[in-house]
Design goal:
This protein is an alpha/beta fold and 375 residues long. The chain has helices spanning 9-25, 46-66, 81-93, 111-114, 133-152, 174-186, 200-209, 223-228, 268-271, 289-304, 332-342, 358-373, and strands at 3-7, 30-34, 75-79, 100-104, 119-123, 164-169, 191-195, 213-218, 248-250, 257-260, 275-277, 283-286, 310-315, 349-351.
């Protein structure tokens, strides 16, 4: 089986030739796919460049699809800023768990585009602008990584993702999701947990859509605030609708806070609210009443469109670790507002405990067991 190499041949030919030889020396057979803009020295306008990047990606995707008999099981991409972004679009079109290696200068935050994909990043340290001791060393290491990945692939083909129960979690709901995972495992389920930090939710959504789950417990739909109030996040338009075909249990883990950066860098409107340092780099800010209502409406509309059985559980003792008696963002009023508003869309069950109580986690496991038995 060959390794597919994506590269901008027109601007990175020397580097392309070098990494090709390095991979061949490591025992790999290399097949190439050109993702060049083909500008041929002409200065393009910004609009022309963006269109050219889109065309290059589509051309490569079509070329890979046409060679279905030689479908790759490992893809290595090489590119600078522009080429790296073209490569990412191509890599994203391939199966989510296919091993992919991106060797790039990374002049952008990669989290937004690799959140739902199995892509190994190799930063080139120096710019990919000719060969030197630094770039040769990086390309040699990338070839070694590719050989290791290729050698680890089973000869019989990629194993399918085993249907599991998908669960969302954060540090502020960790004790609850740990108790849930333990209980679900005892019940005979495999559990796959996703970090609902604005990026893990993209993978959670894609996994739901590609058949990796037999049911989900969205214990921590914190990305309601990430996507619809504030905070950084990857693209995930189907975050709350993409699993509507699956048995689903939903709890309001961390919907009461907005995940922002360092407190000193936050706008004054957020510093004036109750907040606390989740870590030296991240601050959790309490949602306003209007924001809680908006999140309840968005989630409620998504749940109302589901086609599979579902349950909504609301732990009235608190939605996150600091939403508790004496906690930094404690607010029983916000909990009641959210529950009341959500109940205008779908039935809800109010529980007396806190999101991190084992009893609440067990109630979620019980609810999933009940709905998966429904015809």
């Amino acid at each position: 089986m060959s390794v597919l190499l994506l590269a901008t041949f027109d601007t990175k030919r020397e580097e392309t030739e070098y990494i090709s030889r390095a991979m061949e020396a490591a025992g790999l057979t290399v097949r190439r796919c050109d993702i060049s803009l083909n500008a041929e020295g002409v200065h393009w306008s910004p609009e022309e460049k963006l269109a050219g990047m889109e065309a290059a990606a589509k051309r490569a995707i079509a070329e890979i699809a046409a060679a279905s008999a030689k479908a790759p099981r490992l893809v290595v991409a090489l590119g600078g800023g522009t080429g790296g972004q073209i490569a990412l679009k191509v890599l994203h079109s391939l199966p989510a768990m296919m091993p992919k290696l991106l060797v790039t200068t990374l002049p952008f935050d990669p989290r937004y585009v690799i959140a739902d994909n199995a892509i190994v990043l190799v930063p080139t340290i120096a710019d990919l602008c000719g060969l030197n001791a630094t770039t040769r060393d990086v390309l040699d290491r990338a070839a070694a990584i590719a050989a290791g990945l290729r050698g680890a692939l089973p000869a019989t083909g990629d194993a399918p993702l085993t249907p599991s129960v998908g669960v969302t979690s954060l540090g502020v709901t960790g004790p609850g999701t740990d108790a849930l995972r333990q209980r679900l495992t005892e019940d005979g389920h495999e559990v796959t947990v996703f970090h609902a930090n604005g990026f893990g939710g993209a993978a959670f959504t894609r996994w739901a859509e590609i058949g990796a789950f037999k049911g989900v417990v969205d214990y921590t739909p914190h990305e309601l605030t990430r996507c619809h109030v504030a905070g950084i996040h990857a693209e995930m338009p189907n975050r709350f609708t993409g699993m509507g075909h699956l048995p689903r249990v939903v709890l309001p883990g961390a919907v009461n806070v907005i995940g922002l950066g360092e407190a000193s860098l936050m706008p004054e409107i957020y510093r004036a609210r109750p907040h606390y340092a989740h870590s030296p780099l991240f601050t959790h800010v309490q949602c306003s009443e209007a924001e809680m209502a908006r999140c309840a409406d968005i989630l409620g509309a998504a749940l109302a469109g589901s086609t599979a059985p579902q349950r909504v559980l609301i732990p009235m003792g608190g939605f996150s670790s600091e939403d508790r008696p004496g906690g930094a963002v404690e607010s029983p009023a916000l909990r009641h507002l959210f529950a009341d508003r959500l109940e205008t869309h779908v039935p809800v069950t109010r529980l007396p405990g806190h999101i991190n109580d084992a009893e609440v986690a067990h109630a979620a496991a019980d609810a999933l067991a009940e709905i998966t038995k429904e015809p």
